[in-house]
Amino acid sequence: LEKIPDWEPIPYEKIGLRNDAEEIAEQSVLLSIGSPRAVALGKETFVDAANLAVQPVVLDGRTLVPVRFIAESFGATVGWEGETQTVTVQLGDTAITLQIGSRDMTVNGKKTTLDVTAQTINDRTLIPLRAIAEALGKTVFWDDKGLIAISDTDLVDADDWLVIDALIRKVE
Questions:
Q1: Distance between CA 172 and CA 167 in Å, rounded?
Q2: CB burial class (10 A; 0-12, 13-18, 19+) of residue 86?
Q3: pTM of the full predicted structure?
């Protein structure tokens, strides 16, 4: 080490079999653009088993996700008022309200503006990914390959392509 001062120590703790993807999947909701498959806190499932056409999409440069699947995966209660086309989400003391065709979303009485309107696609309400995740107090990881990971904290390292590929395989 004295003769080669720029030598970087070998990270022995990173050598061997890894189960990072499994640990991340147990603490996250994982989705993939254009896929009905999902993982909700370690459980492999579908975004909507009754309607496989329901899946995350990109419209006008924004990633839209199904409100009910995301919210219920984290234990929230989701309500629907058909007459006014209003969605309500309750998670602990967080109350969210939004209406189809509107860019307004209310979180605990405070109005925020969505990048694109809440909309119905394949008979389900989809809204911008970051809006619903942040309203629920979650963090978002998004990858150019289409992986979406939503969790309580940052779990995915953008430089760890092995883990990202393993997570993508779970939801493609």
A1: 9
A2: middle
A3: 0.85
